Please model this.
Amino acid sequence: MLLDFSISQTLLVCLLFVWAGFVRTGLGFGGAALGLPLMLFLNPDPLLWLPIIGTHLLFFSGLTLSQRLHNVDWAYLRHSAWYIIPPAIIGVFGLISLPTLWLNVFIYSVSLFYGIIWMLNRAIESHQAWVDKLLLILGGYVAGTSLTGAPLMVAVYMRHVSKEKLRDTLFVLWFVLVSIKMTTFIALDVEMNFMTALLLIPVAAIGHVLGLKAHHAITRNDITFKRWIGGGLAIVSVLGLLNL
Model:
C-alpha cells in the first residue's frame, strides 16, 4: 500500500491531497497550512509529508504559471525576496535538525493561531513598513520550517500586489521557496518519496481542478469560507497538540 499504509489509511491520504490541492488553487495559498496538520495524524513525521507536498507545489504551481508569467508582479517579488529567502533557508535547516516533537508542536501551534484568527474573522494586517518586513521574515522562517508560513506573507502581499496579480505572484514565491527546500532535502539525503508523490499527482489534480473552478466563488465569500475553515483548523490543531 501507499507509504506502507493500510487501504483505509491510503484512502484518507488520497482525500487529504485532494483537499490540499483544492485549497492551494482555490485560495492561492494554504494547501500545506490546511493539509499538513491532518496528515500528521496519519504519520507524525513532517519529513515524510513535506517532500511530497513540495513536489506537488512545484508541479502544480509550474503548471498554473506556464501561461501566466506575464501576470506576475516581478518588482515586488524581487523586493520581498530579500526578507523572505534568508530566514526560509534558516528554517529549512531547523526542520532537518529539530526533534520531531518540537516540529509538531510548532506546526500545530502555528495552525491553531491561523484557525483562531480566521474563525473570529480577524486578519493579519500590516500598515507600516517595519511590520511588513517582520511578517515577511517570520513567514519565510515558518515556510522554511513547515511550508505553513503563507498567511503571514500573504498579509503583506495583499497590500502591495494588485488583486489580479496576487495569486500568480504568490505561486512564483511558493515555487522559489519550495525549490530551496527540495534542493536542501536532496543535498542532505532526506528521503524524497518521489514515487509516492508522482502516484498522488492525479489525486491532487482532482483538488487542483476543483480549486480552479471554485476560486472566484471562494474569493467572493472569503469571510464565510475562512470562518468555517478556521474553526475546523482550530479543532484539528488542539486535538493534535493533545495527542502529542
